[in-house]
Design brief:
292 residues, alpha/beta, seven-stranded mixed beta sheet, 11 helices, binds ligand LG6FSS7D, Enoyl-CoA delta isomerase 1, mitochondrial
Length: 292
Amino acid sequence: IQALQISENKIIKTKMLSRACFRQFSASIRRMSSTNIVETNIDSGTGFATVTLSQPPVNSLDKNLLTAITDRFKKLSDDSSVTGAILTSKFDGKVFSAGLNIVDMFQKSDDHLGEFWGMVQEWYLTIQGFPKPLVSAINGHAPTGGCAMALMSDYRVMVEGKTIGLNETLLGIVAPFFFADLMIAAVGRRHAEFALNNGYLYTSDEALKIGLVDEVVNLDQVVPTALKILTKMTKTPQPAYQVCKNFLRKETMDTLRNDRAGDIAHFVGFVQQPNVQKAIGGYLQALKQRKK
Ligand SMILES: CCCC/C=C/CC(=O)SCCNC(=O)CCNC(=O)[C@H](O)C(C)(C)COP(=O)(O)OP(=O)(O)OC[C@H]1O[C@@H](n2cnc3c(N)ncnc32)[C@H](O)[C@@H]1OP(=O)(O)O
């Protein structure tokens, strides 16, 4: 009887232990209720959130993805258990983000364009205003809006052999002032003028040389390197980090905040010009043809 009692106690203890272990394990990585186009995992040990853009095929920023990213970053800002974040893409080795969805700018009504641009503004204001350290793990190409999104983070780790840049002029469109200011802040006015006027798309190594990205590494090192730097960055005490980041970024954000309607009107007026529509249509066609 005694032996039976001992083994029964052992079984109960083992069950309790394994339940505790399971609780501990599942608590260390928390999956936020994510949309499937923006997956988010939070490590409860470090408080680091990994936000993975997962909209096939190339994370082009349409209304759905813009809204999902914006909502996610607003939640992460408000979540006091989150200390910092990494932004990356599910399509590693291929594309970080193909930038704004071109289809949303082609043959659309003024209302559609206005709503789309309002979402672009909100996405920019939210990520650029994210109060905690944010590191981009750029694991694929990052043209146009993809580059802008990476520039909104506080540190950029990029995979070797891909491209990045604000190359809008090559499409016959012009990056908004708040994208241009992101580039100026990272690489200085001279490089930014050259990059934007000529729609220059930098290789990873070229981007490193001008300071557009901070590190270039092998694909399998992109996220670990980003995590390493995030660990260092989160050592800066809060609210010092957020106060400093905010005052350095405030001017351009305020310019936009103070005239969002004017900025939307400017975008709609520009994009609806027949020659701009023709250029966007031609570019879309060329993108499709590339495959053939
Ligand atoms: C005042 C006006 C301000 C406007 C500001 C605009 C800022 C922007 O962000 S404009 C966005 C411009 N984006 C680009 O120029 C990027 C275009 N895409 C690419 O260069 C490539 O797709 C890539 C290098 C990112 C990836 O190449 P990959 O070979 O892997 O994929 P693809 O076969 O080219 O593309 C797959 C699929 O996706 C479609 N697509 C690609 N990019 C976009 C996009 N930005 N918007 C909408 N759709 C896009 C592409 O056409 C293919 O579609 P199909 O499979 O249907 O052929």
